[in-house]
Design brief:
The chain has 73 residues and is α+β, with helices and mostly antiparallel strands. It is built from four helices and three strands. The chain has a single domain, classed as 3-Layer(aba) Sandwich (YefM-like fold), CATH 3.40.1620.10. Strand 2 and strand 3 form a beta hairpin.
């Protein structure tokens, strides 16, 4: 994980993009506060699924969920 300022990221975007492409995570700060992260695509998908773990319990049928939502309206 690499931390850079917004100005540094702006001035050397290609360098940091190459780091992300090689699998590294880049955290961007502005005025000492984290404002964003650049992460590899594969990690982003994993991050999303990990954050949803526990929200969708058991088997989930998308068509059944749509039907239930339409009944509610």
């Amino acid at each position: 994980m690499i931390t850079v300022t917004a100005t540094e990221m702006q001035n050397n975007f290609g360098r940091y993009l190459d780091l992300v492409l090689s699998g590294k995570e880049v955290i961007v700060t502005k005025n000492g506060q984290e404002v964003g992260r650049f992460i590899p695509k594969d990690v982003a998908v994993s991050y999303l699924t990990d954050s949803l773990t526990g929200i969708l319990k058991g088997s989930y049928d998308l068509d059944e969920a749509k039907t239930e939502r339409l009944k509610e309206k």
